[in-house]
Write a structure and sequence with these properties.
The chain has about 425 residues and is of the alpha+beta class. The protein is built from 15 helices and 16 strands. The strands form 3 sheets. Strands 1-5-6-11-10-9-7-8 form an 8-stranded mixed beta sheet. The structure holds one RNA strand of 75 nucleotides.
Length: about 425
RNA sequence: GUGGCAUUAGUUCAGUGGUAGAACGCCUGACUGUGGAUCAGGAUGUCGUGGGUUCAAAUCCCACAUGCCACCCCA
């Protein structure tokens, strides 16, 4: 073991793990393209101020979880803790409003939060996310949730629950907060220490407390306090989902941790995971673009945690194809066989086959062992005999079957065979 | 950030104060041009790191690091 170790909460992803990443990214892109989304890649560093403004000064993320440092120019730089702020910044900075509304964007990449790691919670983790800018219609909320559902289905996942709520807008939420305060005030002395703190900092979190569950049962519900606009909006979203027979639960405890949300908020929870069971979360944020300095632009989006999706895939035993599997291993031994091997390798790759050309000086026996090790489907052997007769010996490593073929036909035969099996 | 459990070979783990082990994996050979099965041989390592107690520490004590579990919070 070397003297250097990866930082806490970071990981090296390779070998059998890679197939999950390839799979999730591929399926995600396919699904997003089907819905007319376009990819955006933004920097992983942004001015600290951007996250303070968008995520919210008083959130845990900003208060204690950001990787923040000063660069050589004395600027305060932060490794992005989430994706939306950067995409909104990019939307405003590049005047994407001129690209026509609404515009649909997706991103895939690493995020950073200085947290105490657990399974499904890392300091560098990865998210796939989408944002839709420029529409406040209930149908756009519905499509966002439908897309999330379709995405999870495309992974082969089944054991998840969609939970929806409306957290109101700047008109109705303050009134609801008042109602909550009124309800909780007399109960407060009997409640846990955290709740007493939350009463001041984030009263909606009281509904979520695992200790004081009992009190939450009788608490006022936000859906009863929505303004007409929010109420109509929410009902329409629900209707759209019903019309497509999307299964969901209305859960008035969903409040979302980031400041910028309004109206529709939703979470998707996987039922087989531990404490970190939310695999996807999102909602509407109608004032954020303006907050960041753009024109008033309604928007909605979600973020999905890749690591948590992988945990879910493993829990549900979803079988994932490994794209790194080798079709043909080329083994050779004897004078000038290396040149023939190189030529054959080129021919096979031109046919789209995945080829592992032996790169070491070792016996055919050891090359066979290596071919077995890298899980090659076929081995093509070029020895002195083959060189004389202009042939190649092909061995099927699954069946053990072996035959000699004229060199010219090798690509075609291997291509057909590998497609058949 | 709080609390609990854990850390010994590449991996899974045994070893409760007296010279660091097993299984699997890895490498080599039996087999000079054929993998997997079998047999024989080989290498595994700062016992997480640092300190302390002791004649003697993987073993007892302390601190730190890392992982896991629960909380806070979140993807």
């Amino acid at each position: 073991m070397g003297q250097y170790k990866k930082f806490k909460g970071t990981q090296d992803i390779f070998g059998e793990e890679s197939k999950y990443w390839y799979f999730i990214e591929k399926k995600s892109r396919e699904t997003f393209l089907k819905y007319g989304f376009k990819e955006i890649k933004t920097p992983i560093i942004e001015p600290t101020e951007l996250f303070k403004r968008s995520v919210g000064e008083n959130t845990d993320i900003v208060q204690k979880e950001m990787y923040t440092f000063e660069d050589k120019g004395g600027r305060s730089v932060t490794l992005r803790p989430e994706g939306t702020a950067s995409v909104v910044r990019a939307y405003v900075e590049n005047s994407m409003i001129n690209l026509g509304s609404p515009i649909k964007l997706y991103y895939i990449g690493p995020m950073f939060r200085y947290e105490k790691p657990q399974a499904g919670r890392l300091r560098q983790f990865h998210q796939v996310g989408i944002e839709i800018f420029g529409t406040d219609t209930p149908i756009s909320d519905a499509e966002t949730i439908i897309l999330a559902d379709e995405l999870l289905k495309s992974f082969g996942l089944k054991n998840y629950k969609i939970k929806i709520n409306s957290i109101g807008c700047e008109k109705c939420r303050p009134k609801y907060r008042e109602a909550l305060k009124k309800y909780y005030k007399p109960l407060l002395p009997n409640m846990c220490h955290d709740c007493q703190k939350r009463y001041e900092t984030n009263i909606m979190r009281l509904l979520d407390c695992k200790i004081d569950k009992e009190y939450a049962k009788e608490a006022p519900i936000i859906l009863d306090h929505l303004c007409d606009d929010c109420k109509t909006h929410f009902n329409k979203v629900i209707n759209y989902l019903d019309s497509l027979e999307i299964k969901y639960e209305i859960d008035s405890r969903i409040v979302r941790g980031l400041d910028y949300y309004s109206k529709t908020a939703f979470e998707i929870e996987h039922t087989d995971l531990g404490a970190q069971s939310v695999i996807l979360g999102g909602g509407r944020y109608n004032s954020l673009v303006e907050e960041i300095g753009g024109k008033e632009t309604p928007a909605i989006g979600f973020g999905m945690g890749i690591e948590r999706i992988i945990l879910a895939l493993k829990k549900e035993n979803v079988e994932i194809d490994n794209p790194e599997k080798i079709d043909v291993y080329i083994a050779y031994a004897g004078e000038n066989t290396d040149i023939e091997a190189l030529k054959l390798s080129k021919m096979l790759k031109n046919e789209g086959l995945k080829v592992f050309l032996n790169l070491s000086e070792r016996s055919i026996r050891n090359q066979m062992k290596h071919a077995n090790k890298v899980n090659a489907h076929f081995v093509a052997i070029i020895g002195e005999n083959e060189l004389k007769t202009d042939t190649v010996t092909i061995k099927n490593m699954t069946t053990g079957e072996q035959f000699e073929v004229e060199k010219f036909w090798v690509p075609q035969i291997l291509k057909e065979k590998s497609l058949l099996e």
